[in-house]
């Protein structure tokens, strides 16, 4: 490194420290010391190593930077200010309700791809972006992920580490800022840099230990990383929390604390000296790729089933996804070693280059999906509904990241039968409904499943598709359509005495109940609530109005958070009576029909409930 | 190993294979081939290496065995049959609805401590049991965890691996059954035994590679493990899926598939030969520890606050937990590097020997808690409410494990303020309410928090306590009690025109709204719904009956799955109108008051809603 470059980067790093301190002091909260430990690394990345278009955050050839240690947000904002992307004055608005400079980064800001702040998630997102660069876009951008040492205890990190090595993601560069201090005490390994290195190495990474405040070290490590032909690179940087201000350096009690304005702030700024010049640097700008604008989605081949034939909705999901892949080259699929159960394998068989096997590691499955979504892809991420709970936090963060991601959970409910409760998704509707802005779809046959896959792809944002294991009769003609937010009133008569609202396997039970009651001269209305969120309030209210102000819901899900609650919420302020049939106790192994009867969601249970309410 | 012992164990292993095949064939489903790869290991453990009281599964000195690869359940059941614990005839009831021999193990069976079947969770549970043996009970039992190779991709495994090494759990012995095959294809590393070994070694484990079908290898590895003075031991065993039956050995398409009865089953049994003698072995039996019966809980010191003083409920949690620790020696606390935010540190300061720092690894935090609960401890597991979603699957499995575990989530809701959405727990009530049999508590002041900690400890089962970050006025006298399932009607008058139901920070807002409306001559009823599950239906209906058949709920949680839905569910079939005030869009950083106003859950919002409804 030249003397000039060294001096320049050193000043940039100190500028970043000064901004981080001032902005958090102004906000009277935040994490300045964790910014200070990483300032030299970030300065070297943003003002020398990384290649990006300062005028276009959405240039798909930009190098990507993910601040996995999201509490260092002020450092990131400071880097943009120093790069001339935002104004220095803006930094003083940190954490204010009218500012997008939030306490942890979110994509309210154009330059933030993904929300961070729940630790240990950044590397998985980086894996997704690196998979995209290497295998899909074939772009030579690199993905940099800055992590804290504390967060490397998160298992999700090691899922990402294993997969990055498996897929030889040499375009992925992780940096661990080892400042030795967590929030409430020392980290597990303190400054044992060797421990970190041994572990990353054992997982097949190019691993480099450096002094994180030595600019030559940082630069040469980044050069080595760029030269890696096969391996992803992990740079393990020994740093000092609060570096640059003696009275906070490596001190307890300064984790989530701003330096108070007045004497202490003045002393800190004195030590760091004045802000240096803001300009005089060049950042290499990549060209915008020619395929930057996504192609229009072509017409998707329609479903092709015979009414009455027995097909599982999960099979419809797989068939629909494979067809969607024909029509939309942006669609990719990821699965966690259950592709032969979710039927994601149907997509894999047709579009192997756009399928990624993520093995039994659901956190990284979802994190990588988020990363892919931020590269313009439309990822369909599938596993058993039960096992998507393994990535509940990543799914939660995908909402804050405003990701365009589609989740598919198969083997919903007790109707999976003998495998027992560990494999039964009974809380997935609750989990996905809770996410702000999410769409939750629940097809009752293979036609609906295929159509809803297409609807999911067309909808920008988070969509969950719930599928079932058992084969059930196809009930819809192949030209039927299923708009998000709609429902299907499948049985309707002026003499209806009750309305049954169902979806998935219980819709089939409701139709059986209809037949039985019909034979006894009792007429009921049956609604297929395939769109659980948003829900078709109008149809529900219309039905309730003619059936004694009462609705009966029936679902293969726990009583809390599923179809019953979606219906209750829709009619909450209208005084409609809702009777919920749902799973209310811990299920066990058994045959699907036995279990549905035992838990009161079978056709017979519906018949009993109808008789009870009329 | 003597020739006799070798012959004996070999026959036992083949017996296990025969039982596993027959029972799954009889059930016509299940995973026989994964049983066959592990049969030699399990035979050596159960009939030679392990020490346990065949007549007392609850002897606290028993060695523990956790079948992390839960789909090998038939192998486990076969081992008990061969040990004379259950009858061989019972094995034929596998997976039947009237049998406790479920598709994956659950504690419906006395000899199963924890449910498995969601992969990658067993080792964490083993960590909890090993922590108990080494640091609390100071018993010399060992904990054996049998894992599959596919599940070692799960991050939760690596959280456990790191922590076991940190705490020097030499009483923990893991065994990876490397049969190279997952459900839908080869595992990430196939038969690359070295890869596994390098990784476990790098994390500080005593690591031993063996041929998993060589009994001498298995025995000598177990001897080495028993001799380990400091390190936990991982035995990496190369095996063959389906070992013993040539036409399924290492073959695709035989993961979750029984061998069909008839020709194929006959051929398989022919290859394995006849069942050998069932007896002729000795299992070393440990003595029952003298402190086996848990001590009675003593009186817990009462809260001591002044009404009106500002205290955060999370602070009440910490104080209450510390006092509970005085009264009950079985109480332990675990936290994930946020003990100074959850206030678990108050327990740590008083009872350091019963506090375990689990670092930033929430899956292992919960898994270890489950393990501790199964050793008779009463674990209180705390983190930010938002970050408990990281262990949603472990929490789900804790319900199936019927664990006696207490969860505490702090920093609930938007009222945390400037740290922003990644740190806000807004879906935790939905997550915990969904669990069958769970109790969900939400104190509104420090007195309630202290009391509810004690209630949680007294209740056998899963309890969630939700606490808040901001300081709010103490509203209860220190002698107030808070039974589970109750509520407090804090404001009540014969002229009430509306009922507001709240808990946590919004209760404080409701009381402010009451004051303001009162000054305008409008009287409202205010209910503190501190027990969100079970919910006090009677009080809700009574209030609705006198306030226009209407309830207004207000909560610092997303609209789905929280207080509003709990109330709606309680009154669902009664036609009561419920107006829900809740967070309905993605929040951002800002001051707590600003955010509560922006999202419509402030006192002013309540006042507006009351005016609207009357």
Output mean pLDDT of chain A: 97
Please bin the fraction of helical residues of chain A.
25-40%
Structural class of chain A: alpha/beta
Determine the most extensive contact between two protein chains.
A-B, 115 and 115 residues
- Record field, number of beta strands of chain A: 19
**Could you state the oligomeric state of the chains shown?**
homodimer
- The proportion of residues in beta strands of chain A is 15-25%
Shape of chain A: elongated
Strand order of the largest sheet of chain A: 8-7-9-10-12-11-17
Biggest sheet descriptor of chain A = 7 strands, mixed
* SS element count, helices of chain A: 22
Which consecutive residue ranges of chain A, at least 5 long each, have pLDDT under 50? Answer: none
Radius of gyration of chain A: 27 Å
N-to-C terminal Cα separation of chain A, in Å?
84 Å
């Amino acid at each position: 490194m030249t003397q000039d470059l060294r001096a320049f980067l050193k000043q940039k790093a100190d500028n970043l420290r000064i901004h981080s301190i001032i902005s958090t002091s102004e906000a009277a909260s935040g994490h300045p010391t964790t910014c200070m430990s990483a300032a030299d690394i970030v300065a070297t990345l943003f003002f020398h190593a990384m290649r990006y278009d300062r005028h276009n955050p959405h240039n798909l050839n930009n190098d990507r930077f993910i601040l996995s240690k999201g509490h260092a947000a002020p450092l990131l904002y400071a880097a943009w200010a120093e790069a001339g992307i935002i104004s220095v004055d803006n930094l003083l608005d940190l954490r204010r309700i009218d500012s997008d400079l939030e306490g942890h980064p979110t994509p309210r800001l154009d330059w933030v791809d993904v929300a961070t702040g729940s630790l240990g998630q950044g590397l998985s997102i980086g894996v997704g972006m690196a998979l995209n660069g290497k295998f899909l876009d074939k772009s030579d951008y690199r993905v940099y992920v800055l992590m804290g040492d504390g967060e490397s205890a998160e298992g999700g990190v090691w899922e990402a580490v294993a997969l990055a090595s498996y897929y030889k993601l040499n375009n992925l560069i992780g940096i661990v800022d080892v400042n030795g201090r967590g929030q409430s005490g020392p980290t597990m390994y303190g400054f044992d840099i060797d421990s970190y290195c041994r572990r990353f190495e054992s997982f097949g990474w190019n691993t480099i230990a450096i002094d994180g405040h030595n600019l030559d070290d940082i630069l040469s490590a980044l050069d080595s990383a760029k030269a890696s032909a096969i391996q992803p690179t992990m740079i393990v940087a020994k740093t000092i929390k609060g570096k640059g201000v003696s009275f906070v350096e490596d001190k307890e009690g300064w984790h989530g604390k701003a330096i108070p304005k007045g004497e202490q702030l003045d002393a800190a700024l004195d030590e760091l000296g004045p802000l240096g010049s803001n300009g005089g640097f060049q950042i290499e700008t990549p060209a915008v790729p020619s395929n930057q604008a996504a192609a229009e989605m072509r017409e998707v081949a329609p479903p092709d089933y015979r009414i009455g034939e027995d097909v599982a909705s999960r099979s419809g999901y797989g068939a629909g996804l494979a067809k969607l892949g024909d029509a939309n080259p942006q669609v990719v699929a990821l699965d966690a070693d259950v592709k032969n159960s979710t039927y994601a394998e149907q997509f894999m068989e047709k579009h192997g280059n756009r399928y990624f096997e993520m093995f039994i590691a659901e956190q990284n499955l979802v994190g990588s999906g988020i990363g892919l979504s931020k590269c313009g892809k439309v990822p369909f991420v599938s596993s058993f509904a039960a096992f998507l709970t393994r990535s509940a936090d990543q799914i939660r963060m995908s909402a804050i990241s405003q990701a365009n991601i589609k989740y598919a959970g198969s083997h919903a409910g007790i109707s999976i039968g003998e495998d027992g409760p560990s494999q039964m998704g009974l809380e997935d509707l609750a989990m996905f409904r809770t996410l702000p802005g999410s769409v939750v779809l629940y097809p009752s046959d293979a036609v609906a499943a295929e159509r809803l896959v297409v609807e999911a792809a067309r909808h920008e944002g988070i969509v969950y598709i719930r599928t079932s294991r058992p084969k059930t009769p196809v009930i819809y003609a192949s030209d039927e359509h299923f708009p998000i937010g709609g429902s299907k009133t499948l049985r309707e008569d002026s003499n209806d005495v009750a309305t049954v609202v169902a979806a998935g396997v219980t819709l089939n039970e409701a139709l059986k109940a209809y037949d039985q009651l019909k034979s006894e001269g009792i007429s009921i209305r049956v609604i297929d609530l395939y769109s659980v969120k948003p829900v078709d309030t109008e149809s529900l209210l219309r039905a309730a109005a003619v059936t004694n102000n009462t609705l009966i819901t029936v679902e293969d899900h726990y009583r809390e958070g599923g179809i019953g609650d979606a219906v209750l919420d829709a009619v909450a302020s209208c005084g409609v009576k809702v009777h919920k049939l749902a799973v209310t106790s811990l299920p066990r192994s058994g045959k699907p029909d036995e279990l549905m009867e035992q838990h009161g969601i079978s056709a017979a249970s519906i018949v009993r409930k109808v008789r009870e309410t009329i």
